[in-house]
Amino acid sequence: MFHLGSIRGTTIALDFSFFILVGLFVITSYNPDLGIHYALLWIPILFLSILIHELAHAAMFGIFGYGSSQIVLGGIGGHTVAAARRDAKPWQEMVISIAGPVSSFLLAWLMVMLYQRVAFVRQDPMLIAFVPEMIRANFFWGIFNCIPVTPLDGGQAVRSFLRIFLPDRKAFPIAVWIGIVVGAAVAIYGLIARQIFVAVLIAWYVFMNYQQWQYYRDHGTPGD
Question: How confident is the model at residue 30 (pLDDT cuts 50, 70, 90)?
Fold first, then answer.
């Protein structure tokens, strides 16, 4: 674990698994005709995109008065934890979850505005390569995180939304089955579209949700 510093009390750390993710993108994006430097653009793209996404979660924790957070960049993306999160109201949890995808869409929109309105961005060779990839990465990252299957933000938001109207013992299984059904559909679509990595990843999340259902059936809502 590499500690990168803190912003207004929120610590930022880099897990070793983040380097694996970056390495995977660099290797799969390498094109001998373009050169290694274009593939290496995925290092700042992934770092900035995921960091801003997680900072949006942390910012909402702070706005709601739950103090500083701990951000860890690693795995497929990252996660943000606030010590006082268990005290958050369901609607606040929903807003906190949604903040991540919203920040990704806003970052993509900002990149579009820069590309359209700043002539230098359309003239510099590296920015011509960097900005469009930044747009696509953040748009995809926002859409991906909206899929209503835990541990993605969409799954967390659905459960929090249901908890506004229902006790958690009822909201939890409904959210889990929404995740299983929608996630299975997305995984099948990913296979048909030959997006194998996405299909396998979502299928794994579906399996995790099914395990949560089995735990709920045998033991009740996790955390009770």
Answer: confident
The CA-CA-CA angle for residues 131, 136, 138, to 5°, reads 95
Residue 136 lies in a domain: no
* Domain assignment present for 132: no
Q: In what order do the strands lie in the sheet with 10-14?
A: 2-7, 10-14, 69-74, 77-82
| Prediction pTM value | 0.89
CA gap 54, 59 in Å, rounded: 9
Domain count, the chain: 1
The whole-number average pLDDT for the span 85-96 is 85
In a domain, 198, yes or no: yes
CA gap 187, 196 in Å, rounded: 9
Residue range of the domain that includes 184 = 147-224
> What one-character-per-residue DSSP string does 105-126 give?
HHHHHHHHHHHHH-GGGGTSHH
224, pLDDT greater than 60: no
